[in-house]
Amino acid sequence: MALYEHVFLARQDLAQAQVDALAETATKIITDSQGKVTKTESWGLRSIAYRIAKNRKAHYVMLEIDAPGGAVAELERQMQINEDIIRYMTVKVDEAEAGPSVMMRKQERDRERRADREGRDGPREGGRDGGRDRDGSRDGGAPRPRREEEMA
Fold first, then answer.
1. Which of left, alpha, beta for 42 (phi over 0: left; psi -120 to 50: alpha)?
2. Which one, out of 87, 99, 114, 122, has a CA that is 20 to 30 A from the CA of 7?
3. Is 13 exposed, middle or buried (0-12, 13-18, 19+ CB in 10 A)?
4. Helix 69-81 crosses helix 16-32 at what angle (to 10 degrees)?
5. Of 56, 53, 110, nearest to 85 (Cα)?
6. What DSSP element (H or E) covers 7?
7. Which helix (H) or strand (E) holds 26?
């Protein structure tokens, strides 16, 4: 049997439980065809590069599959029929990736950076006023230098 990575994008208005049900349906299609899904990753709701069927975001799900070609063909046929799936792509790979995928590692790295930044700097300050104090100064109350016209 061959190894495949199958990624599909589900509509943005679906709940996470519905997206998980779609992944389970895909897994059932593969297992019914004498294949197996070795890994399932939900990458969450992410922005897409361009609008697809009036959707600006989509739920991304990746499946690593070890199955014959006929099982993958059936999976793609079912994906094409389902109106909750807006895009899908299946790629044949030489070997399965050990550990989490690149997308999951990126999400974890971004989470760590955000936590480090908040821990180091404290909560972000400034709002609509651009970080200015009440008197309009930026540097904690030092008077603003006057222009020559104001002095005369």
1. beta
2. 114
3. exposed
4. 140
5. 53
6. strand 2-11
7. helix 16-32
